[in-house]
Amino acid sequence: MNEIHNTPIDLTTQAVGITATLKVENAGSDLVSEVLLAFPDDQAKHLAYLTATNNEGKGKAKSSSVSFPVDVVRPKGMPPSLTFYSVSLPKGLGKGDSLTLDVLAVFAHALQPFPERISQADIQLVVFYETAHYLSPYAVKVQSLSVKLPDARIESFSKIENTKIHGSEIKYGPYENLPPFSYSPIAVHFEANQPFAIAQQLIREIEISHWGNVQVTEHYNLVHEGAQSKGEFSRLDYQARPHVRGASAIRHLVAKLPPRAHSIYYRDEIGNISTSKLWGDPKKTELVIEPRYPMFGGWRTAFTIGYGLPLQDFLFHLEGKRCLNISFGSPINELVVDTLIVKVVLPEGSTDISVSAPFPVKQGQETKFSHLDVVGRPVIVLEKTNVVPEHNQHFQVYYKFSSLSMFREPLMLISGFFFLFVACIIYMHADLSISKSSPSYLAKLQWDEVQAGVQQVRNIFDRCLTAHDKLEASLRDLSRTGDVQACKASWKAVDNLLKDLSKDLKPLLVSLQSSPQAAQILPKVEELIAKERELQEKLMVKHSTVVDSYEKKLSGREIENRVALQQQKITALRQEVDDLLDFIDEI
């Protein structure tokens, strides 16, 4: 086979696009059904997008191109360190037949910053390596190469035979009668101040609601992969001369959203970012995203954009199924994505799910639970690496969904509120009190009676202790005034009070003794009564001794000696009575 090549290389963006126009002719006698494309291994690892289409006609007469299948192959007898792709032809080429192909190859991370570190005031230079001779396993009759640069400022480039430069374009060739695998390395070192915006990871979540909305949420982890910034950043210098003191910085990004996009937001982990701008017309909606700070080489940021889309613009009915037709890649211009994950969240109850994508992607499925979900919503997960703007094509998700399932969640809400109101009505009209004839109710009544009786006993003992205090107070008055008759009168009044309290205590004690519920507290009550009576007797004896001593005109020292032993017993008994009262209070 012989080939004729015209190969323009576009270096105006960070995604390098190489478009080769190949006129393939079968010079042999056998039928040819495929065309092999060869790339060096170090270049193939950066290959992000490869397509081959037929080229018929020119200009307005050019017919619509047909894309041919392209697959990785390992043909035998070929040189090592090369990666081969096979373009399958729909119709074999016979002897002397020819076919013109347009082969588009897009490479990510193919431009290397040189120098790798620059200051804020330096311009950004990059270097690109390629071969002036189109690398092919076939003989080449005629071939030429052109390199289109973003600017006419070229630091250096390889000068070989038939090299010309016109402004920002370098041309190599034409070269004729090149043997198979002809290779002539070239390098172009040039100024490229365009931002090298790389999304190390982009997660797009597309959630379908059959109530009329498609919600799209995109989470970006962005890095500037141009020449690394060195030295300090001066905000003053940047604001004074942004195109000089930050020529390669990312100042803003432009996201081209679908028409009629609404409810658009742009935020990061801090909150909403108000430096974005939005405008649109019936054909498009553009969102200008400005980061919180200008991004220089090596700097990173993370943010989220979200927007809603009208359901009728993207969901269609097709052969008994519903079909979602929406774009795959990022809406941001000239963004390269290292890892793109697209999650399509379908309504709960979706079945018979299938995906159609225009290029190979890794597929998976998971489940997401949201409000009122029972079994969860099926989520189709599509993953692809080295995604370039050429991947921003439409893909389709097909599934079956019953319209009646739309009313499941509203009916669940209505049923929930209905049963709640019914439960409230039943609760308000139901008698939930305990039956008066039940054992638990009777036991509660008996315990309430015991508590009331114990409280009355407690009140009587408080009055007894108060009477004891009055006896002690009368003795103190006697020592101060010497009035024996007044002290005897106080003793008589206290004695009468204690007798009355003793009478009041008897029926309460009988009631406690007859109640089974008082079995736990009754021994302590009886012990309290005994201790109080003993205390009462000791106080009366002490009172009589002191009064008798005053009548005999004894001295204060002698009186204290006569009642010292009695006072010790009174103090101990009073402490025991107080402890028993505390114990009864706890029960």
UniProtKB/TrEMBL annotation:
It comes from the Eukaryota. Pathway: Protein modification; protein glycosylation. It is found in: Endoplasmic reticulum membrane. Keywords: Endoplasmic reticulum, Membrane, Signal, Transmembrane, Transmembrane helix. GO terms for cellular component: oligosaccharyltransferase complex. InterPro entries: Ribophorin_I. The chain crosses the membrane at residues 411-430. It is a single-pass type I membrane protein. GO terms for biological process: protein N-linked glycosylation via asparagine. Component of the oligosaccharyltransferase (OST) complex. Belongs to the OST1 family. Subunit of the oligosaccharyl transferase (OST) complex that catalyzes the initial transfer of a defined glycan (Glc(3)Man(9)GlcNAc(2) in eukaryotes) from the lipid carrier dolichol-pyrophosphate to an asparagine residue within an Asn-X-Ser/Thr consensus motif in nascent polypeptide chains, the first step in protein N-glycosylation. N-glycosylation occurs cotranslationally and the complex associates with the Sec61 complex at the channel-forming translocon complex that mediates protein translocation across the endoplasmic reticulum (ER). All subunits are required for a maximal enzyme activity. PANTHER family: DOLICHYL-DIPHOSPHOOLIGOSACCHARIDE--PROTEIN GLYCOSYLTRANSFERASE SUBUNIT 1, RIBOPHORIN I. This is Dolichyl-diphosphooligosaccharide--protein glycosyltransferase subunit 1. The gene is LOC109022245.
